[in-house]
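Continuing the batch. This is chain 6 of the set; chains 1 through 5 are on the previous pages. Same settings as before, nothing changed between runs. Recording input and output for traceability.
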Amino acid sequence: MTTTANTAADTGAATEPADEEVRIPSPGDPFDQDDLPTRKGATGALLRSLLAPHRRGVWLTVLALLLQQAAVQSGPLIVAYAIDRAVPAFRTHDYGPLIAVGAGFLLTACCSAAFQYAYVQFSARVSQNVLLDLRSRIFRHAQALSVDFHDRYTSGRVISRATTDVESLRELLSEGLQELINVVLASLYITAMLLWLDLGIGAVAALSFVPLSVLIRRYRRRAAQAYGERSSAIAAVIVKFVETMNGIRPVRAFRRERANDAHFAALNHRHERANGTAMLEMARYVVVSRLIANVAVAGMVLWGAYRVAGGTLELGVLAAAVLFIRRLYDPIDRLAMFLNAYESAAASLKKISGLLEQVPSVPEPAAPRPLPAPVDERPGREVEFAEVSFGYRTGGEVLPQFALRLPAGQTVAVVGSTGAGKSTLAKLLARFYDPSHGQVLLDGVDLRELSHADLRRGVVMVTQEAFLFSGTVAENIAIGRPEASREEIERAAKAIGAHDFIRALPDGYDTDVRKRGGRISAGQRQLVAFARALLADPAVLILDEATSSLDVPGERAVQRAMLTVLRGRTAVVIAHRLSTVEIADRVLVMEHGRIVEDGSPAELIAGTGSFAELHRAWRESLVG
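Output for chain 6:
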């Protein structure tokens, strides 16, 4: 007999989210999904957490650089001593001071080289460990985030975070950091030496840093904006590239090459503009900083020469001061390279910290409840949707006050038009999403109270895509239960009917299926997916249109496999083809998130409802 489930008042034709419209975000456009919100101080906290396990290496790196700078900056003092003491002594046939000058230069050169080598060793070890940790964090966190996040934040952007943005940090740690420390140490050391050698020259050198500091603050502010835009632009390029390569077949089938070229060119041009803006800001900084430095050097040299001529300043002191002053301003250009790397890394770290600060919308429970022991020998468990309502972030309520109970061991086929809520029901049962209201219960336990491990052991979903990973056939089947032996893997494949075609592959179960399982057919991939599900031995199995992409022979093979997999389990079969419905104990017909028909296949076919009409049309199409 046909029955109708109790539902709330009609809320209109809510549908599942369609593919997001592709558009090119302009600078500052709030649509640009590349910018995730970050709390204040999150970037610094991330960097500190990355460096914290490597404190010893960081301090050894800084010490090596301190000693290397001390050796390098000793040169002008030795020059001053040579001019004012060693050369006059040499003229009186006293060779000791000149020999000491030569030995001093040799010693400082050797020490500088040794400490530079130590710095490179320590810094390389720290930077590589930090980058390894950061990439691992991004990968682990991206996997832990819920499906709805990945629906909104494309895989290309996640790839950009783990590649381009991590590479920006590598450049800062391996090159820019040394420049910064060199500039800071050299500035402090040289200013102190100038003040010690001559108070007047040292004071002028110190005052010259006032306009330079103003210039640096202005450059940082403008460069931060430029590099943030550049990071977003390259992410958009990667997104488009990944999307096109993944969809190369429909691109070729529908001749999308020229349209894709135009779209990619626009994204590439945006990246070019962002790069140009960043380089222009650096060029402005370099030109103005050189102007300030050259004016300061010229003024101090002229003033020093005047004082030497007047006898108030020793020539050696002036020579040392000139060398120090040249070394004081030489790093200013290199500081631009550091600021360049720093702003790029800061923009990248901000985006990475934004990703890492995202929390799963389907969290692990703090105190998970265990599932009760099964009441009989059947592997199935009871499923209940208790006054569930749900809507996607894109808008529209898909399931309005949905109620349903599935007894343990029952196979239920769900049919309906596109957007009726069939796949949403399956995703809620697999806990890819949590309901907005109500509960999804497994043997009376709310799915939100189960640990992820228990849930994944208890509920398994096989999709239309039947995704296979690069690796062997055996490895792909073993995903269902990684600890399974080869004998258990082969037993599952035999039960499904996949053993013969697997044995016929070049290396049998050790054949690499390659990217997305492209080495085998769609039907064979589906059989491997069923073998994986059977090996997992779940209590509840969800088949989301598992035969819709197969030809008739492939569909029949998969349906035979389905009978094996479903035996004794609670199963929800999202049916696209009505031939799949024949194996079900019960059929649900959904419209606009509601169950409009509920009964056995025979009852619904004998009735006058929409399913009976669909079934008659399907039978006529087979005859035709």
